[in-house]
Amino acid sequence: MAPTFPPPPVNTIDWSNVGFKVREVNGHIESHYSVSTGQWSALKFVTDPYIRLHGMAPALNYGQQAYEGLKAFRLPGNDRIAIFRPDRNASRLQHSAEFISVPPVPVDLFISAVKAAVALNAEFVPPHETGAAMYIRPQVYGSSAQLGLSPPEEYMFCVYVLPTGVYHGTHPVKALIMDEFDRAAPNGTGSAKVGGNYAPVLRWSDKARVEGYGITLHLDSKRHEEVDEFSTSGFIGVLKEGEKVTLVVPESRAVIDSVTSLSVQEIGRDFGWGVEKRAIKYDELPKFTEVLAAGTAAALVPIRSITKRNSNRLGGQARVSSGSDGAETVTYILEGNEEPGEICTKLLDQLKGIQLGKVEDKFGWRFEV
Ligand code: COI
Predict the structure, then answer these.
(1) Which among 2, 24, 223, 322 is placed 20 to 30 Å from 161, CA to CA?
(2) What is the pLDDT of residue 2?
């Protein structure tokens, strides 16, 4: 008898053009926590995408909310599905939850919930050949009514899933440094994946997009001297001198620990490349041979250029140009060239190879559903 799981992909979606938007699926997973029991409840599958929250919930009023992003892929033959590194996202959600006084979701519960959400929506996992994925969005909230500024009695953990392509696309993208707005305070919530680090960015990233910049980059909030991260993803600078390749990633308390970045750092080490985690000065940007944005939704985005307004600090260096508008730009990929750089291509091929089951998973990153 033919195996019944996983079901084939639905034929109501144009799998060659999945895009990056919300699509309704069969349902999501919920678990609830009450301070009185000190327990997360058994997982429940809920078909209504609208969740039930009290209007006075601190999630809605005080931003007591955190989320995660990870992906599931169909393996070759389309008859198996694997989730990429859910254990890392589970521990990152615990890190974020601590910042916002939400009880930790146990790692096992997180992994079971993610597997259940994928399994119960398996027909929405894109076909292997498309290279697209099922995006998984776990979330935690303070959910019961609470007026005073103290933690409420009840919390909710949900896992939503939906099929997606990659955010930002696959072509080189121009980045703009955010000068007028700081993403997170020096000792604040910058390393937590909480909505409060994202909502204030929306109007700036929208404005930047209209001006031709597909991605925005944040420097450290205290002095605007060091690179923190992109608004949607982590920063990786590539140094290539002859055959020697080094990936440089920011050491900062204000950045989210990107699972994609950590994974490509491992892949880079395995290729025999160096990896340096250290403060990255703005002035170093012209030294990089490539810059990449790394995130679950983004995968690896080749950065065409990085522009800083009202700046005249890098003058005279290779890759640097100054505009009549007082902005300076460091260019990594010239206009007209739509190809990612060599290092981006190598890392992305290997990362996707592992995720899609085309390459041996020697790191143990695939969790089959
Ligand atoms: C992700 O990459 O999973 C994120 O959560 C970033 C978001 C802006 C799409």
Answers:
(1) 2
(2) 62
